[in-house]
Specification:
Elements lengths: L12 H18 L9 E6 L7 H14 L7 E5 L11 E4 L8 H4 L1 H9 L4 E4 L3 H11 L6 E5 L11 E7 L27 E6 L2 H5 L1 H10 L8 E8 L3 E4 L13 E7 L4 H8 L4 E8 L8 H13 L4 E5 H8 L10 E4 L1 E3 L3 H11 L9 H5 L2
Parallel strand pairs: 1-5, 1-6, 2-4, 2-5, 6-7, 7-8, 10-11, 10-12, 12-13
Antiparallel strand pairs: 3-4, 8-14, 9-13
Helix pairs in contact: 4-10
Length: 370
Amino acid sequence: MPFPPAPPPPRSPWQRLYGAAHAAWRRYWAGRAARLPRPVVSVGNLHWGGAGKTPLTAAVARHLRDRPGGGLRVAILSRGHGRSEPGRVRVVSTGEGPLLGPAGAGDEPVLLAGELPGVAVLVGADRHAAGRHALAHLEPPPDVFVLDDGFSHLRLARDVDLLAFPAADPWAGGRLAPGGRLREPLASAARADAVLATGAGEAVASGELARHLARELAPYGFRGPAFSAPTRFEAPRWAAGGGAAAGEPLPPGSRVLLVSGVARPESFLRAVRAFDVTVTGELRFPDHHPYPEASLERIRRAFVDQGAEAVLTTAKDRVKLLGRTEPRLDLPLAELPLRLEPEPAFWEWLDGRLGFPSAPAASPEERAGP
């Protein structure tokens, strides 16, 4: 068995109450969701973090931007978790790099803005208002919207709902918060148009997990296709300092202090150990950690005490430690880049679902693009 079978629906009265509340909320918005005059692709998950939805958002936006049959003008709409003005619509990027830092936009929107030239990024608690803002103020206006972390954002109608399940923890224990790690019941998967098994490993790359995922979700009402979306980690590279240009690879055997503020730090550690670096120590912070000065000082002390040559972090943490205009951390900083690479059949399905003409699948080298 690639991973454990899906658990049965919880019997706890509290869990059933939470499940009923989620169902009532979905019914309420079923006929009230606002619609944008352009296609909307939603990317989300049922977990509290760590499912690979932001890398999947980046992959979907990159594909739509670079479609062999004709690239589209893409705008990503995000809530912007942790930003200072959560209710205000802000343009993070018009397609030419970040205009805001993590404090004003949230870490993941800034990351997407930096990694996706030609793709606009906007944040706002009201994603419909953010989409209308994009249509009114971006020139040229978007052809298609990608909704980051959008599965539970029921106020905006979508044309395609994608749901990511991490191979390392597909069912999140099968229990809703506050006693579990699910944000919605597994039965919510019935709303998805397609599911994707995300993560590293041969079972993901071969499609074995995707086939298993579809079978396990069938009793919960899911009837769509399942696809594999393996994670590809690239060799650690410099982000700032270290006597090398940003983007240059770390020298083999470099002594690194791992620093992360992500939902699954153990996955980050496991990925780093596949490369030729020496891990001197590790500091783990909560997901979306803003790195106040006290945290930066803790990193500095650990760096000196452990004789590290570089702080190695995730791309999401890099945008906060590096800062928009100048580094916030005065130490050599490196990152471990990653990409999600869904199987070619997924892109064919997505184009067909959106009504776009079919086109030959791009090669892995073409997909590697900017």
